[in-house]
TrEMBL record:
NCBIfam families named in the record: PFLE_PFLC, T4HPD_activ_SAM
Keyword Protein transport assigned: no
Group of enzyme by EC: oxidoreductase
Residue ranges that the Swiss-Prot or TrEMBL entry lists as coiled coil: none
Enzyme Commission number(s) of this protein: 1.97.1.-
Superkingdom as given in the UniProt entry: Bacteria
Chemical reaction(s) catalysed: glycyl-[protein] + reduced [flavodoxin] + S-adenosyl-L-methionine = glycin-2-yl radical-[protein] + semiquinone [flavodoxin] + 5'-deoxyadenosine + L-methionine + H(+)
Native organism: [Clostridium] hylemonae DSM 15053
Protein name per the record: Glycyl-radical enzyme activating protein family protein
């Protein structure tokens, strides 16, 4: 069984055509600007819009962990005690509480994904498994899911940060049309500083799936402080060329802080406040750099 935080329909930025994107919960990286912070932790998590809390106390009454207490007229959830059980969700008349992380059986999930089959067929789309990090989910579950989608002729794309054991990639390779594979920076120290871990395994996995013939879209979140110089992009280009990575597409994704509002609801602090997107002109220059280096399918955005 795997925890899923959401299923997003009609996605047009997660691979070819119209896709339904499944967000799995849990990721080993801790990117400071993560747009989906509710997918980082491997356990269910409570989100609460405390700013709008009326202090009625209904959630405190039902909480089996006594995790909710009053502080200055508002109800505050002790994150160390909260198990994300969800008992309090329906108690809030203002609908301020929700839990990220729901279990689906493979059959339930396939049933849900098949509802959009008509859109996949018409647009050349399919299903994208994302996160969090789908390659760190229960791999028996994920393998069964992709096999069943494959048997039904539904295209599967894997959106990955690459930080997972190679064996997991190997299991999915025969059933995966496209890997949407993130590269953030070639500088290992910068990688550790902004992503919480080095990039060794990420690059090794990329080289190995490429050598096995995987179809790969390289996705680069472009952030001034992380990889925003011409030299940073040239290093990535040099790496892709030297390792002869089979690149079908390159997507340059300018930094944005969508998702920063979710941190407070999770009782977390957004770590990306000092990060910036490059200018439009700089982004265009990066596109030109890739094109001049022989990568023609490069664009800004997903
Ligand atoms: S999710 Fe469960 S443990 Fe957490 S505050 Fe609500 S009722 Fe209590
Ligand atoms: S039930 Fe909702 S409004 Fe009432 S105290 Fe809990 S979070 Fe606040």
């Amino acid at each position: 069984m795997s925890l899923i935080t959401s299923i997003q329909k009609y996605s047009i930025h997660d691979g070819d055509g119209i896709r339904t994107t499944v967000f799995f919960k849990g990721c080993l990286l801790k990117c400071l600007w993560c747009h989906n912070p509710e997918t980082q932790c491997f356990k269910p998590q409570l989100l609460c819009d405390s700013e709008r809390c009326a202090g009625c106390g209904s959630c405190a009454v039902v909480c089996p962990q006594n995790a909710v207490r009053e502080e200055a007229g508002k109800m505050v959830t002790d994150r160390k005690l909260c198990t994300g059980c969800g008992t309090c969700v329906d108690s809030c008349n203002l609908n301020l509480r929700e839990v990220a992380g729901k279990e689906y059986t493979v059959s339930e999930l396939v049933k849900e994904l098949r509802k959009d089959e008509m859109f996949y067929e018409e647009s050349g789309g399919g299903v994208t498994l994302s996160g969090g990090e789908v390659m760190m989910a229960d791999m028996d579950y994920v393998e069964e899911l992709v096999k069943r989608l494959d048997r039904m002729g539904i295209s599967v794309a894997i959106d990955t940060c690459g930080q997972a054991p190679y064996e997991n990639f190997e299991r999915l390779l025969p059933y995966t049309d496209t890997f949407l594979y993130d590269i953030k920076t070639m500088d290992n120290e910068i990688h550790k500083k902004y992503m919480g871990m080095g990039n060794e395994q990420i690059l090794e996995n990329l080289e190995r799936i490429s050598s096995k013939g995987a179809r790969i879209y390289i996705r680069i979140p472009v952030i001034r402080e992380v990889n925003g110089t011409k030299e940073d992009m040239e290093e990535i280009i040099r790496y892709l060329r030297e390792k002869q990575i089979r690149v079908a597409n390159i997507n340059l994704l300018p930094y944005h802080n969508t998702g920063s509002g979710k941190y407070e609801k999770l009782g977390l602090t957004y770590g990306g406040t000092k990060l910036h997107a490059p200018s439009g002109e700089e982004m265009e220059q990066f596109v030109t750099l890739f094109k001049q280096s022989g990568f023609q399918n490069v664009k800004i955005g997903g």
